[in-house]
Amino acid sequence: MRVMVVGGGGREHALCWGLGASPLCSALFCAPGNAGIADVATCLPVNSDDLAGLVAAAQKEKIDFVIVGPEAPLVAGLVDRLAAAGIKSFGPTAKAARLEGSKAFMKDFFNRHCIPTAAYGRFTDAAKAKAFIDQKGAPIVVKADGLAAGKGVILCEDIAEAHAAVDSMMTDKIFGAAGNEIVVEEFLEGEEASFFALVDGAVALPLVAAQDHKAVGDGDTGPNTGGMGAYSPAPIIDAGMQTRIMAEVIMPTVRGMAAEGAPFKGVLFAGLMITKDGPKTLEFNVRFGDPECEVLMARLKSDLLPALIAAVDGQLKNFDLRWRDEAAVAVIMAAEGYPGTPKNGTIIAGLDAAAKVEGVTVFHAGTKAELRDGKAVIVANGGRVLAVTATGKTVTEAQARAYRGVDAIRWPEGFCRRDIGWRAVAREQKS
Questions:
Q1: DSSP state of 178
Q2: For the whole prediction, is pTM greater than 0.90?
Q3: Residue 397 and which of 21, 96, 174, 310 are 20 to 30 A apart at CA?
Q4: Pair 423, 339 in one domain
């Protein structure tokens, strides 16, 4: 098969890395890709938000199967456009992608189908949102309704902070049109986890769970980001908890979307809070997480491509996936200034040395190749720039290897958290 991946981040590098090993894949393309993806796929100069350009590129390259990585083209209807052109693709339709495209739609869907979630209100009026906050008290969570690159959630410790969050989203438009409507919801206590399932419209196949670190700083401090690192397995999701999540969250969603005339096909990513009362759904994403995808691909033993095809063809009931017993840890190296305005164009060296560390794979998230003084170099081209990913017998071992990889990279303008996987490491030390 001739396969094309849409996107240019660490998730897409991990997907290309996994797909390239498939005997079913005769040619692999990525649009637009990045400097690391160029080592495993042919990069096409088409941005992931150029829907017409992507369809045209797929037609020109005679692509048999498209895998859409980021959320924005899914919400915008890329899968619908590809289907209209007779091209098979992995991902939900625009109608099904509303589960991520609108938090207000998602929360109302939870209510309609009795899916456990935080109590909430949705608002297009700032004064009414503030009145709701005054009534509920703090801590409280303020979320932009639309897509905001994983940064549209503000955890507010007091009412003044929550009022300021409303103003920043609705008046100052820090997330643009995504903040035209907001969701205000109760603060849930517990441990967060990322749960993934392949879905074919009727059947859901659970993948291994992961945990990510949203805050920019060590100890989960500072503003939210798109994710500063991830690890798998997530000890909080044992076999019993997985059964509950499938029964209480995933399958009611699959049945509910089908009943509402928008059957979901693709990967359903539930951001969960595991509370003392069980799993509560914080959000849905309609694609692989980033950086969770990097640790999932590092642990996946089966061929990824037939699994994705089975989801599109409605054949997951006949499918199973095998996973390595090893743990995986991904550490994000970000450009100075992230999650604000990142400093781009800085040279990154030592990538080959990092890749030589046992168990380490360096996935590129925001890089490009340039000529400087006649010499080919890799430079930063985004906020989250590298995902240094390692496997090991335990999370502790994988974490140590990942940081050895990080320390082999010479990039003074880059930074990372030094505590990725800390919850699992603490559990392993106790046991």
A1: G
A2: yes
A3: 21
A4: yes
